[in-house]
Amino acid sequence: MALLITDECINCDVCEPECPNGAISQGDETYEIDPSLCTECVGHYETAQCVEVCPVDCIIKDPNHEESEDALRAKFERIAGGN
């Protein structure tokens, strides 16, 4: 499942540089996560780095983009293979 930044985001800028896939970018009002690039850090780290550094706990699992661990790993391999 990809992650989602809620409207509780305070635009503190700490999550964006932590994303190894470049899935986080500044949106119109808050940061946003591109679900096609989000692997919840599978393939890179044990835990999602954006969740770890977020000071307001506004990053949640996106209910509109449910993915298994295997699907996240396959996405990581696709993204990593494209570099």
Automatic annotation (TrEMBL):
Please verify whether the record's keywords include Iron.
yes
Q: Could you tell me one molecular function GO term of this UniProt entry?
A: 4 iron, 4 sulfur cluster binding
User: A single GO CC term, please?
Assistant: cytoplasm
A Pfam family hit: Fer4_7
Q: Does the keyword 4Fe-4S apply?
A: yes
Q: Which domain of life is it from?
A: Bacteria
For the 4Fe-4S ferredoxin-type domain, which residue ranges apply?
1-29, 31-64
Cofactor(s) the protein requires to work: [4Fe-4S] cluster
Q: Keywords, A to Z?
A: 4Fe-4S, Electron transport, Iron, Iron-sulfur, Metal-binding, Transport
Name recorded for this polypeptide: Ferredoxin
Write down the species.
Answer: Marichromatium purpuratum 984
Source lineage: Bacteria, Pseudomonadati, Pseudomonadota, Gammaproteobacteria, Chromatiales
